[in-house]
Amino acid sequence: RVVGRTVLAWTGLRRSFGGLTAVADFSCELAAGEVLGLIGPNGSGKSTTINVLSGLYPPSSGRIELAGADVSGLPPHVVARRGMVRTFQDPRLVGRFTVLENVLLGAHVHARYGALEAGFGIGRIRRDEPAAIARAAGVLTAMGLDDVADRVLETLPYGYRRLVEVARALMVEPDVLLLDEPAAGLSEGEIGRLERAVLDLRAAGVAVLIVDHHMDFLARVVDRVVVLDGGREIFRGAIGAMRDDPKVAECYLGR
Ligand code: ADP
Ligand code: MG
């Protein structure tokens, strides 16, 4: 499969917490229309990689380039405005709001305010931003969520939270999307929706990094995978080849 030019590149990325090195000397890149899987046992540095790339934590060292510009250490809302957004391993949504309202918050949560501030601003969003509502409706249709747009989120099965979290990130029309365990806790039907959404994004030229443990889901959407163990890359290549790699087998069997 032919992918586009590099949109995100990180070199020598390292992040420590006190004496613990969560990510060490990690370099990789992501091209437009490419889906990269990031795999590894618990504690191997996958979420930290997303946290550092998205600007939640500054890197201890290393450089992050987004569309050719250095974004290392810039805060998440600035990184989001430049086209890269992420989802969280624990969805950060407002249960008492409808699906549509949660998605509408996306433009604000990712691009402008903190969640609390955005929560208070929901009335204003609804009144003042018909364009945002039209965009949210488009995102919900693309994710197969239009039938539940007006349902209060906390009344829906858990899996919807992850799908809504992805829909919300799409409100900023990202060039790069970082997904932290999007398939965790989803039913097979919900994974099917997620899968179609990821493949649509890939076809639209979005670069997608997916951290997940669901290998069948990954095998259906990724172009290649990187495996981390103890914060270090131990494998890079096709997901089929990963299954036969002795180092990968060892890091999983060793636990
Ligand atoms: P994964 O997502 O692969 O399960 P993480 O990136 O969350 O792993 O964590 C990697 C290591 O970094 C773990 O040992 C974890 O405890 C540690 N770590 C992650 N975030 C923090 C933090 N904010 N403060 C201290 N240690 C952290
Ligand atoms: Mg994690």
Automatic annotation (TrEMBL):
The lineage, from the top, is: Bacteria, Pseudomonadati, Pseudomonadota, Alphaproteobacteria, Hyphomicrobiales
Domain ABC transporter intervals = 8-255
GO MF annotation list: ATP binding; ATP hydrolysis activity; branched-chain amino acid transmembrane transporter activity
Q: Which domain of life is it from?
A: Bacteria
Segment of the intact protein contained:
343 to 597 of 605
What keywords were assigned to this record?
Answer: ATP-binding, Cell membrane, Membrane, Nucleotide-binding, Transmembrane, Transmembrane helix
One GO cellular component term, please give it: plasma membrane
Give the location in the cell.
Cell membrane
Q: Provide the primary localization.
A: membrane
Q: Which residues form the signal peptide?
A: none
Record's protein name: ABC transporter domain-containing protein
